[in-house]
Design goal:
With 314 residues, the protein is α/β, with parallel strands linked by helices. It contains eleven helices and ten strands. The protein has a ten-stranded mixed beta sheet with strand order 1-4-3-5-6-2-7-8-9-10, with helices on both faces. The chain is globular and about 70 Å long. The relative contact order is 0.18.
Amino acid sequence: MAELLSDEIDFTAYLKETEPASKVRPAKSFADDVNAEFADRTDARKPEMFSTKLRNVLEFRPGEVTAWTGYSGHRKSMFTGQVALDLCVQRERVLLVSLEMKPAKTLARMARQAFAVARPTHAQVAHLGAWSDGRLWLFDHLGRISPALGLAVCRYFADKLEGRQVVLDSMMMICESEESMDEQKQFVTDLVRLAVETGLHIHLVTHCRKPQSGDDKPPTKYDVRGSAAITDQCANVVTIWQNKPKAKKLELNPNDMDAQAEPDARVAVEKQRNGAWEGSVKLWFDDRSMRFCDERIGAVLPYNLSVAESAAHA
């Protein structure tokens, strides 16, 4: 079963800054890193979200931070949960720090996504548990944590558990106030530095300001609530928008064919510092599996968890 990181772990050692002496290194000690800069990356493993149209266009590179943002209630956590599942299939070591949902609820939703069913069987839940060993960890804490503890948990996962990907859900549960610009700026600065130092890719879930006119139109990176440092410093910024106007039309007329043809969600890569592609994709949502899909029509197939190792090199 996916392992839990207890909030009773002593993170004291990981709250401290790295000693300056360990940062002063001779130039020759960077030889391997320099060679890596010139290496042919054609066959290099590229962690990505392969289950949607974001495949091959958005990568989750080591040492970067991705900000996932959108209005409240627009399925950001559900989407990043699917991202985490994709990463686990690719043999990435993933930590979910979901501060607004108990681990059992998080795993129940991932089970639905993995097996493409509304109610997974006991056998399927057991299979997911066994398969997730060495791939998935969850921080067992509900409610706010301090920025210092958030950073310490990330560093612990990287150092002690050789982690590669961390999802922090969400920033509003870490920074005391979304209006505290200085605290947010410092936290994002520290997060970016930590990612570079550890090689982690950190996924930070944030919120957008809801305009007075409502949330009927997709947000942009300029709508992120709080400090501009979030979008300025993060390597990638992705907005998630649920097409609620479509749902309203179908409530009035379930047979509205034009409304049915509209996508359920729009996901836009508004910034990708080290990638070639920026743009948006239209996705549909399957209520049964809680999965985001490329097309409205077509079977939603379960993940093939038994061939995960080969998927990592696909």
